[in-house]
Amino acid sequence: MGLVANVIEAAGTPTICLSAIPPLTRNTGAPRVVGLSHPMGLTMGQPGDHDGQREVLRAGLEAGVAIPEARGYVELPFRWPEPRSVAIREPDPLPPIAQLLMRKPWLLPRLVAGRPPKR
Amino acid sequence: MDPYRYLPFTSRKIMQAWADRERPPEEVAWTPITKPLEACRVALLTTAGVSVRGDFPFDQQGERDDPWWGDPSWRRLPHHLTEDDVEVSHLHIDHAPIEADLDVVLPLRRLAELEDEGVIGAVATHHYSIMGYVLDACELVEHSAPEIAAELATDEVDLVLLVPV
Fold first, then answer.
1. Cys staple from B58: which of A14, A48, B71, B155, with CB 3.0 to 4.6 Å?
2. A84, A95: one domain
């Protein structure tokens, strides 16, 4: 996401990246990163929690515009209301790459290293 | 915050390794925000793989056929979408919460409320989606991102918020 933000920003539109995994977003060159400890796929909040979603959106925008220079980072104070074990919602079926690695675990280092097999 | 708190064990290890491996580019782009937020025209970009029903969805079969590949294309989205109008094509997240309430990843209705409250100036005419699982980012960076950037400029967007999943 940082790579995309960097391209958009370079072309003249300011960007703010919300991020649940700030080290990754920051290290890929995002100009403004706002960290948020929310589960995957639930970035803005719980379904139906309109007040909570609006609060996160407003806080993210306000924190982002206040960042004074490139590579700036701010963390939002929100806490997810569910325990971790409930908050992690894995897709069913698992992603194709996860299924592949269960069949061929020796390929895991390639994924970790970001070196897909030649196609 | 623990940035890996909500990832299952293996994903946590992989994301940590990726974050450690990435070195930020020496030059990070910077375009100053020249207006106060209450005057900004704001667009959203989600990585949830959202497409309008009837438009081409993101290619999930391609990824099933080759799990090392992810669809690097992008979609333009109108500003009035709800969960009833869209298809979600992202094989790495649980779709149920998004199908119940699109605003968990693309908060268009919340953004409109912030416009009504005077917190932002205006909701942009168009918004955008990519699909977040793209291991080889070349196509995304060389084609999709510049195309989205050109659209944002044409639409005179003052600020774009990227919402990951």
1. B71
2. no
